[in-house]
Amino acid sequence: MAPEPFDQTIDDLCDIARRAGDAIMAIAASSLAITRKADHSPVTLADTTANDLIVAGLTDLTPDIPVVSEEGAHILDEPDQPFWLVDPLDGTKEFIAGNGEFTVNIALVQQREPTLGVIYAPAKDRMFFSSSPGQAFQQVGSAPPERIKARTAIPGSLVALASRSHLDERTQEFLRKANVTDIRQMGSSLKLALIAAGEADIYPRFGPTMEWDIAAGHAILIAAGGSLTKTDGSPLHYAKSDLRNPDFVARGTVR
User: Fold this and answer.
1) What's the confidence (pLDDT) of residue 36?
2) CATH architecture designation of domain 7-147
3) CATH topology of domain 158-251
């Protein structure tokens, strides 16, 4: 059965992401209380406030589609069913550090593949979104949306993106073998969005990530002509029982 079309909901999704981003920025301007989850990762009022806003918005928009969120429910009754996959504040460490490299991530997963994505970077007022294949866009501030496209990698001049906290020896060795000439470190799903926008070429990730960390960026990257696969080149699917991702590599287009 083919995935259902959801193109008409993209404006609503961008609005939900923007409202969540506004709430995050309002909290950033006030006192910032930090607590720890069971795995010792940080969580703030911004995470939970954005989560409540997004879940309510998605439930109103599509009441029959369940929402799986980092800060909420993690269980699906049927893995092949459509579901929303949400990270209400991706890059909590960056948010706490105040460097602006944090995002709101909303993705629609259908038949275990991300088919629609929205990433909003509220500190930069930069929105990335996709609906159908070939339909990937960015909007900066109040400017009209513009289509984005992953660029073709040119051997000998590759720009790689890497996590601020996970540039380990294995990642560096991979990038050396790929003849990367420029490595830029940053947080959150911005790495995937910037490859989709043609501003970088490759992002390898060896280490633990969750499905909500990458689903929105994965959908946008595919729509922009790029790819995100396991390290052996095979597809990466969603709705896994523990929602954990294997090691992966995101790329722009390849000659």
Assistant:
1) 60
2) 2-Layer Sandwich (3.30)
3) D-Maltodextrin-Binding Protein; domain 2 (3.40.190)
